[in-house]
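Workshop exercise sheet. Pairs work together: one partner reads the sequence aloud, the other fills in the structure field after running the prediction. Swap roles for the next sheet.
Pair: D.N. / O.F.
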Amino acid sequence: MTARSNLITVSSVVFCFLAVALSVGAQINAAAKKRTNGAAKMNTHKSPASVEQDKKTVAELDTRYQQAVKVNDAATMARILADDFVLVTGRGKVFTKEDLLKEARAGTTVYERQDELEQTVRVWGETAVVTALLWLKGTTEGKPFDHKLWFSDTYVRTPEGWRYVFGQSSLPLPDSR
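Structure field:
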């Protein structure tokens, strides 16, 4: 085989690879546009009443989640948390769903208070964000804590219902007493 025939063979293979890659890319792009257009249409046709119902549903779900955390109810937490859930604390520590469930099952934190003092829910189509001021009081491994902090909880509507997918907390707020 000559150098020229090797070059033609390599060129043919590269051309075929590029043709397949462009075809697959076009199919993925078309599917993404279809999903995006469908979501945009669905959002623009939501009645104010259904948005208000979504806010109420997510608010109740977030309150139920906070109550589950308070009593270390891992089963309820597991139903509400998405499998790929992530929590980022104000100190930069990252927790997964499994981390939180393990901690709840171990009962290392005992809560006297795990209460939302303020709660605001905003809904954009299939996504909702809860902003809440939490009062946390209790012990972790015997060490007491008593502070307030802000939380942002992101929920996404799935075929199984709303799921808590991402949380971010502030640092504990300065003592306001």
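Discussion prompt: The first strand starts at residue 81 and ends at 88. What would you look at next?
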